[in-house]
Amino acid sequence: PLTTTGELITGAAAAHTAVAAFNIITLEHAEAVVAGAESVDAPVVLQVSENAVKFHDGDLLPLARAATAAAERATVPVALHLDHIQSDDLLRRAPDAGFSSVMYDASRLPYAENLAATRAAVDWVHARGLWIEAELGQVGGKNGLPPLDAHAPGARTDPDEARAFVADSGVDALAVAIGSAHAMTTRTATLDHTLLKRLSGALDVPLVLHGSSGVPDDELRAAVTGGIAKVNIGTALNIALTGAIRDFLTARPDAVDPRTYLAAGRTAMTEAVARLIGVLATPST
Ligand code: G3H
Ligand code: ZN
């Protein structure tokens, strides 16, 4: 059934585990994420990024309605989250489109502007009963830009700044920059676990890991143990989808029915979802 992101994250944080949040671009992504979560009997978040909305001609509703339908018929709890929003117009369309949460991303702005923009978004969103995540300290690799140097201090979230940001903005969760980067196609990121420990000690809101596709299994488990309560995964599904379609079309160059190769791609995504949720469910000790 359809549930709220706040409920899933609060539950995950209380149980010292993390909920997986997968970025969906097509209907097949939504179907695969739900099927994968059902196969391991785990709750899951379906998230739609501002970039995915742009891909669908700027219209939020087709994908939102598909995701809502997939969530409603699911045998596991499924929540809808609007991801990496920079547009205030898009933010204002979130509640009516069925999203229970948003990630408002003003992390590209200097601290004071990020705080002011996030505070305004928090006020608007909370007045409508939604849950809101923000980011401090940029997780690189967004919008096709090269990943920031993961070891550059500017790419990391400062714990003291984060404590003030959470208190002054009123956000419900914080995306932290601890060494991951978006859109990595190799799983070679190393996380700063010492920093994560300091962040989770300094903050009383759930922490979110972005760019998780590039993070190896052991590092993901350690991040969950270290206090990450929501794990955002996008690229890993696209690697699975595209790889399966490429293999299918290479083996069957005469294929024309999209259902044949989309089915192969969807199955590969379903398996990736189940596997990654399994990784998060067995945190390191
Ligand atoms: O917000 C979405 C995620 O951070 C996805 O990152 O595509 O690198 O897994 P990823
Ligand atoms: Zn992200």
TrEMBL record:
InterPro entries with a match to the protein in the record? Aldolase_TIM, Class_II_FBP_aldolase, FBA_II
Q: Which Pfam families match?
A: F_bP_aldolase
Species classification: Bacteria, Bacillati, Actinomycetota, Actinomycetes, Kitasatosporales
The protein depicted here goes by the name Class II fructose-bisphosphate aldolase
Tell me its cofactors. Zn(2+)
